[in-house]
């Protein structure tokens, strides 16, 4: 700081000399009060702002390093403590070998311990059971620390090292796990949509391995349209007798029928639990973009596939892959995510842009969601 004060003094002395010389020739050009007002006050304010900025940066750096040090120390000294925690949990689970990009997630209460390799938190957050506290999305977790998933939003971790070894507890699962021979591929997209409130699971998670139902696909459409609150507040009725047990289901269906978004399988049946196939999902997505099968923009279970490729939602290869076998919630999540960046009919505005403009989702939610999906 001495050099700063010395430099300031020299400049001030020079300006004072100019003022004196000018005064000798007539009217004073620079007065001491002007110098103080225009120069010293300005320098002082800039110095104050710089000091405040440096202090803020220093505090943020110290906080980050403190947390990193805490995790590192816990990782080194957590052997006995970890055993005690796991003994309380009561289930040793299973050890799995994973590769870069693989994910670990599960329902509320599922846990995991990173034994080898590195990983980062995906979704909202995980709980550090060993030390207490939470770790937010994007945080690099420490080894030999017991973490738990605190809510049913499919938060978890993504492996960032080439290989890793993870201990899974209380229902935690990996993206390598298969159900009925099907391996979940698009968990990251479901997590991203969940951040935006566009894709939700049940008390056992996203259930990506199973087929979506007609009711679930209809709800996905309503969310893509940004009209979920309108649907849930709708007081009208519908003619179907097979929707019972969940009042919101009646509201979703009644609203969709009122808006012309869907029909039943008969005059009195909606068949809410029947499987929703890929053609129905394509139709709903294209309608959300403003295309109409009634006006001839596409034909259900026919040219809808071509439109999905033409709009850039899917590549030809991706569409053909989805068409093989059973259509699952896993693939539905992928289709929904890809539709967000597609442009509306005859417009440069994207579907997600429309949702943000309507207040159905926020830019911050979308930015956070994009951090979860592969680039």
Mean pLDDT comes to: 81
Number of helices: 13
Largest sheet: number of strands, sense, barrel closure: 6 strands, antiparallel
Number of strands: 12
Low-confidence stretches: 1-16, 18-30
Sheet/helix structural class = alpha+beta
Based on CA atoms alone, the radius of gyration comes out at: 30 Å
The coarse overall form would be globular
- Going across the biggest sheet, name each strand in turn: 1-9-3-7-5-6
Question: Structurally, how many domains make up the residues?
Answer: 3
Order of helices and strands: HHHEEEEEEEEEEEEHHHHHHHHHH
Topology:
Elements lengths: L1 H23 L7 H46 L1 H11 L4 E6 L3 E3 L5 E6 L2 E4 L2 E4 L5 E3 L9 E3 L7 E4 L3 E7 L3 E2 L3 E2 L2 E2 L3 H9 L18 H11 L3 H5 L14 H13 L18 H11 L14 H8 L5 H8 L5 H12 L10 H8 L4 H8 L5
Antiparallel strand pairs: 1-9, 2-8, 2-10, 3-7, 3-9, 4-8, 5-6, 5-7, 11-12
Considering the chains and any ligands shown, give keywords for the structure.
six-stranded antiparallel beta sheet; alpha+beta; 13 helices; Jelly Rolls; 375 residues; 46% helix; four-stranded antiparallel beta sheet; globular
